[in-house]
């Protein structure tokens, strides 16, 4: 690209950059997987003091990889320097759960980080900074961040349920033996936890004969209502059991998908799942960070309206909302 039309670099913060997800994520960002192949980036990496030397090692590797889009690297253990002027903040820093734990078991360690980092983001990030919280419990960390950074527009704070969404696409593609990119419009409702509700009532597959309903093609309602749902709800735990570590490459890749669709827009007729602040749509309590189907245009997400919700779905959507309200009070009791 001639310099005259080259885009100005976008500053992307990754917290917890030394960790598993961070290490997978920063090269993806530097290769354009998050913001596109013609968008230069400056990557800000934050980690904690004990990881400072390793952080410097990751910086060296980013330089060594000679990424054409990478216009600078800030590697720091100082939250203010990390947040300074960032346009996108991907909050991965925190502690992952281990085998046998629920995501809310990491609550007390992680929510206090999000309370502290909220004010730094509020004060030092670019005014229109878009925030994605990945660290668990993701919805509740995002809620804490939103409540302790009241000057950041509510619409700019989101959490990652795209991994669950992608997992649902993957399971349907395996079951029907179709390509994953031909499956669309699954929905993850609610919490990024074992109460989430993966819903395929509106999902479709592109075939040579046009769009077909996933429900009709699967033809086994029992599987869709039982094994399919629990597979997605438990996928994080299943990966931890297999790897002895929580998911990393899929989490990093889904974080790129989340930001890319948010910034660049969702394809026509396609929605994705994002954890966002509820506006009361579908009877979900306003202000709760809840995963909804959304479309994105010009850097803004909107909740898909008017989907028919049957009794089975209603019950599951309410159960995951209830868990989020309980998590919220647990988070506040940890912070006090
Ligand atoms: P990890 O332990 O490998 O890395 C976490 C990093 O965060 C470490 O380098 C640690 O030093 C750093 N860190 C801790 N406190 C920090 C702070 N205050 N500021 C900055 N950095 C800090 O963990 P991981 O496997 O990369 O997972 C990171 C988080 O993401 C975990 O909470 C995990 O449960 C969560 N996760 C979420 C999803 C999702 O879909 N939402 C998917 C996978 C993992
Ligand atoms: C995942 O879904 O893989 C992550 O949230 C990690 C976990 O604790 O399950």
Q: How many runs of DSSP E, i.e. beta strands?
A: 14
Assign the structural class, choosing from mainly alpha, mainly beta, alpha/beta, alpha+beta, or little secondary structure.
alpha/beta
Helical content class:
40-55%
Q: Gap between N and C termini, in Å?
A: 53 Å
- Count of helical stretches: 11
Major beta sheet summary: 6 strands, parallel
* Global shape: globular
H and E string: EHEHEHEHEHEHEEEEEHHHHEEEH
- Report Rg: 19 Å
- Report the average pLDDT across residues: 96
Bound molecules: nicotinamide-adenine-dinucleotide, (2S)-2-hydroxybutanedioic acid
**Main sheet: strand order:** 3-2-1-4-5-6
Which segments are poorly predicted (pLDDT under 50) over 5 or more consecutive residues? none
Strand content: 15-25%
Chain-wise SSE layout:
Blueprint: E1 10-15, H1 20-30, E2 41-46, H2 52-64, E3 70-76, H3 79-83, E4 88-91, H4 107-124, E5 130-133, H5 138-148, E6 157-159, H6 162-176, E7 183-184, E8 187-189, E9 197-199, E10 204-207, E11 210-213, H7 214-218, H8 221-225, H9 227-243, H10 249-264, E12 272-277, E13 289-297, E14 300-303, H11 311-335
Parallel strand pairs: 1-2, 1-4, 2-3, 4-5, 5-6
Antiparallel strand pairs: 7-10, 8-9, 10-11, 12-13, 13-14
Helix pairs in contact: 1-10, 4-5, 4-11, 5-11, 6-9
The chain binds nicotinamide-adenine-dinucleotide (NAD) and (2S)-2-hydroxybutanedioic acid.
Nicotinamide-adenine-dinucleotide (NAD) binds at residues 15-16, 18-22, 46-48, 51, 92-97, 113, 134-136, 138, 160, 163, 192, 246-248, 251.
